[in-house]
Design a protein that fits this description.
Elements lengths: L1 H30 L6 H13 L1 H11 L24 H8 L6 E2 L1 E5 L3 H14 L3 E6 L6 H15 L3 E7 L2 H4 L5 H6 L3 E5 L19 E4 L7 E5 L21 E5 L2 H17 L22 E7 L7 H12 L3 E5 L3 E2 L2 H12 L3 E7 L5 H6 L1 H10 L2 E5 L7 E4 L3 E5 L3 E2 H6 L2 E6 L2 H16 L2 E2 L7 H14 L3
Parallel strand pairs: 3-4, 4-5, 10-12, 11-16, 12-13
Antiparallel strand pairs: 1-9, 2-8, 3-6, 6-7, 7-8, 9-17, 10-14, 13-18, 14-15, 15-17
Helix pairs in contact: 1-2, 1-3, 2-3, 10-11, 11-13
Length: 468
């Protein structure tokens, strides 16, 4: 009898825990407006039903996708434009992103040597301020050199702020940050694990990468792209070739948009009051849209929509001639995969550039399904012989998106990401030339049919590993 009573009590407690966990999931999802895919919602419910004692703390740590952040004024109203191609500008502004702003002297870096030279030159030439956001700062010769240059600038009175992601900082211990602080530099960790003030959002990482020098000054400069500040992204390490990657730098009014974004993220990471809304920048008028204007496109938990995912899907449906995509990882949302497959079927040339083997084996294992779908639709897949880390999306001569976002669910639905949208046809072509140079060194992928066991294995990994 005591055993029966104990069992009954245990079952009652188990049912109470399970019910509480499901209620927390439902209420928090509704209150936080967490719009999950059906497969992700089902995965969470099954996890809670099967293992409520593990699922509940796991959900509280990793379960949220969106973070309440203060809104900074009203979204700009898209201009009424009839010219072909301005759908991209209208879409970006409709998603709450800034209006186009002028830029000048765009430099697309051909390789890591150019990227390194540009980064160090911008640091050395800074006169007033340097703000850096990166996922990883390498504990290597390049990371040391960056810290050395920043300390030198601090000695001349330049303000330096460095922000690293809390998880990214654990992947490669930052070199001598104490020395930077002692020299007068400011440092912030974005959402460090177990110490984050973002409850329930430990899984949300700041993957944006930018350096802003002399914000608000005529000499303001932005360095941006997919490169982390570590040796393997630039010139490699002894015995290891550098990763192929994409970065660029530019000047002009557009730099202020990047500075505003950094200031918001810095305040959030430091727990400071939100910065006041900056005065609106002079936006490009209808005629200027034909010239050098671009837009900052931020995506992540601080945005009401999945900004980049929505933009990519829209662009795939609007493309007429070509779609060029580069990403180290390809685990796309079903809506994006469908849009790309339909584009290929209606005659759009769709080319996707990936590394033959990336640094994340799990991603390589599960990308097969999507690659087979694209190949069956008529798209071409290109595999780079070495690690290719660049992130680029080009649609016709209308739009080039370059920055930090990968073509997977983590980047497009979880991470804080940053892409720049270029609309000038000549500069779109410059990014296309970078793509073509990388494609020429790659081998075309031939999709192979797989058995039921492999297909089920890929599906299980997708469901469990990329939906939660």
């Amino acid at each position: 009898m005591p055993q029966n009573i104990t069992l009954a009590h245990w079952l009652t407690l188990h049912g109470l825990v399970m019910t509480t966990a499901i209620l927390i999931y439902v209420i928090s999802s509704h209150a936080m407006h967490q719009r999950r895919q059906p497969t992700a919602a089902i995965a969470w419910i099954l996890f809670i039903l099967l293992l409520p004692y593990l699922a509940l703390p796991f959900f509280l740590l990793f379960g949220s996708r969106k973070v309440p952040r203060p809104r900074y004024g009203q979204a700009p109203t898209p201009p009424a434009l009839d010219k072909e191609g301005h759908w991209a500008i209208d879409t970006i502004m409709a998603l709450g992103q800034p209006a186009p702003a002028a830029y000048d002297d765009l430099q697309v870096h051909e390789d890591g040597h150019q990227a390194r030279a540009a980064l160090l030159r911008i640091i050395d030439q800074a006169q007033a301020s340097i703000d850096i956001c990166t996922f990883i700062l390498g504990c290597d010769a390049f990371g040391e050199e960056v810290i050395d240059r920043l300390c030198d600038k601090l000695q001349t009175g330049v303000r330096v702020r460095l922000m690293l992601d809390g998880v990214g900082s654990l992947m490669d211990r930052p070199p001598h940050l104490k020395r930077l602080r002692q020299a007068g530099g400011a440092f912030a960790l974005f959402a460090p694990p177990l110490r984050s003030g973002i409850r329930g959002h430990t899984n949300l990482r700041d993957h944006r990468k930018l350096l802003v020098a002399d914000a608000g000054q005529p000499s303001a400069r932005l360095w941006c792209g997919g490169r982390n500040l570590a040796a393997n992204y630039f010139e490699g390490t002894p015995g290891q070739p550098p990763w192929r990657d994409l970065s660029f730098d530019l000047g002009g009014l557009l730099v202020q948009q990047a500075s505003d974004l950094f200031n918001k993220d810095w305040a959030f990471a430091k727990g400071l009051p939100a910065p006041k809304q900056e005065a609106a920048l002079p936006s490009c008028n209808t005629l200027a849209y034909q010239g050098h204007c671009a837009q900052l496109v931020a995506s992540g938990p601080d945005q009401a929509d999945d900004t980049l995912l929505a933009l990519l899907v829209t662009a795939a449906y609007r493309a007429h001639h070509r779609i060029l995509l580069a990403s180290p990882y390809f685990v796309p949302d079903p809506s994006l995969l469908m849009a790309l497959c339909l584009a290929a079927r209606r005659g759009v040339e769709v080319d996707l550039l990936l590394p033959a083997r990336s640094n994340h084996r799990l991603s390589d294992l599960v990308r097969g399904r999507a690659l087979r779908s694209l190949t069956d639709a008529g798209a071409r897949i290109w595999l780079a012989p070495t690690m290719m880390h660049g992130k680029l999306a080009i649609f016709d001569a209308t739009l080039a998106l370059a920055g930090s976002a990968n073509l997977d669910n983590r980047s497009l639905q979880l991470n804080y990401e940053l892409m720049l949208a270029f609309h000038n046809a000549r500069d779109v072509q410059r990014f296309a030339e970078w793509f073509e140079a990388e494609r020429q060194a790659s081998k075309r992928h031939v999709a192979k049919q797989v058995g039921m066991t492999r297909d089920l294995f890929e599906g299980l990994l997708l469901w469990l590993g990329f939906q939660l």
